[in-house]
Amino acid sequence: MQVRTAIGADYDAYLRLFPELGVDEGTPSRERFDSDLSRRMLVADDGTGVVGYLLYDLMDGTGYVRNIVSDPAHRRAGIGAALMETARDRFAGGGATTWCLNVKASNRPAIGLYEKFGMRLHYRTTMMRLPRETALPAADPAIALVQVPPATDAIVERAFQLLPGQLASARAKAGRTTVQLVRGPEVLGVGVFMAAIPGSFPFRVVAPEYAATFMTLLRPLAVETATFLQVSAENDAALAAQVQQLGAYVHLELLHMHGALT
Questions:
Q1: Distances in Å between the alpha carbon of 217 and those of 108, 212, 260?
Q2: Which fold has domain 2-96?
Q3: CA-CA distances (angstroms) from residue 12 to 27, 30, 220, 242?
Q4: pLDDT tens digit sequence for 116-130
């Protein structure tokens, strides 16, 4: 089994494997694959072709596994383990000391694999979707949604317990906007709006009471044909309850796993 960095010729294999993620967002274009995804993607080739891939981000001290997929016809062939081993080595070589990922709470085989690599449950995340037709309260006119100035990334990341470098990593990707909810000089929330979903991940506020205003101000960023706005509550049961009270439904339950690189 050879694991290597993806190249442009791997796009067709990526198209074939992407549906195994079980998400309802459209498959990224070849242009995005060539300009962004391939450079941070590992592929597993068993000699007959690409049978799996792992998409990652390498931030300041942390390797973040975004997606890991193996061909259903080649399950239990060590593809996931081979990809994780290579990712671990690449992260360590890039100066990272920890790594993390999100996994569906129902995916027991994957959770078992990650535990073998030393990862453990860090917190739970609830992904929620607010239907377009659901009314939200009018936003407080004293509160605004603005982009996060790069110079304040470290301050905002510390305040909202984001990973160091998480905002810069998001800002470098097409179709993503780093935003913060502000009232004068006070930062009340932070998020990364992703047009392709559409929604914000992360979606963090200083208190659940600001969720409605944050969502009201995020809505105009979505395309007119969007049928929902997706937000998340990471390790925040009160926020999850507040967003559902506003009319959102639970789309997905995730486990955030974290571990030291050894």
A1: 37, 9, 37
A2: Aminopeptidase (3.40.630)
A3: 11, 9, 34, 42
A4: 999 999 999 999 999
